[in-house]
Amino acid sequence: MNEIENKKISKFLSYVLRHHPDLIHLQLDENGWANVDELITKSTGHSVGFTFEELDEIVQTNNKKRFAFNEDKTMIRASQGHSIDINLALIPQQPPEFLYHGTAQSNLDSIFDKGIEKRNRQHVHLSADKETATKVGMRHGKPIILTIKTGEMFENGIHFYLSDNDVWLTDFVDAKYISKE
C-alpha cells in the first residue's frame, strides 16, 4: 500500500473511530472498541475501502500509534483523541515533573487567560518531550511550546492518564501551571 493510500485510510479511521462512527453506522462499545469485520465491511461502501491486511499494516506502522487491536485482532479502537463519550479504562498515573503542550502563537492569550481546555475532546493532550509537542504545535501554525508543571498539578490532586500510545491526558490545565520558554 502506498503512503498516500495509507494516510487516506488512517484519516478515515481517525474520523470514524474517534468522532463519527455513525458515518458508517458502526457500533462502538463503551470502551470505544469496534468489531474489525464490521468496520471493514461498512467502510467498503464509502470512499475508503481496505482489507484486513491493509488495516493491520496501518495499526502496526502508524508512527503515532493512533489505533490498537485487542489481543486476537477482532476488535480495534483509537488510542485517544475522542470527541465521543467513551471510557478508555485508563488508570491514573503519576506524570513526570514537566510535560509539554504544542500550540500556535494565536492561542497564547486564551491559554494564559483560561488555561488549556479539552474543548470537544475527552482530555487535554500533553507530550513527554518538546520534539513531539513541536510536531503537534506545527499543525496549528508556527509552533509554541508550553511547559506544564505536571508534578505540581499531581501533588495538588489532579489526575493524569497515559494512553496506549504514550500521550499524557488530563481534564484541564490551569494557567498557573503553564510557562512559555
TrEMBL record:
Gene3D superfamilies: 3.20.170.30, RNA 2'-phosphotransferase, Tpt1/KptA family, N-terminal domain (1.10.10.970). Keywords: NAD, Transferase. It is an enzyme of class 2 (transferase). The keyword Nucleus does not apply. One of its GO terms (biological process) is tRNA splicing, via endonucleolytic cleavage and ligation. Its EC number is 2.7.1.-. The keyword NAD applies. InterPro entries: Ptrans_KptA/Tpt1, RNA_2'-PTrans_C, RNA_2'-PTrans_KptA, RNA_2'-PTrans_N. It holds the Pfam family PTS_2-RNA. One of its GO terms (molecular function) is NAD+ poly-ADP-ribosyltransferase activity. Removes the 2'-phosphate from RNA via an intermediate in which the phosphate is ADP-ribosylated by NAD followed by a presumed transesterification to release the RNA and generate ADP-ribose 1''-2''-cyclic phosphate (APPR>P). May function as an ADP-ribosylase. Belongs to the KptA/TPT1 family. This is Probable RNA 2'-phosphotransferase. It comes from Chryseobacterium soli. The gene is kptA.
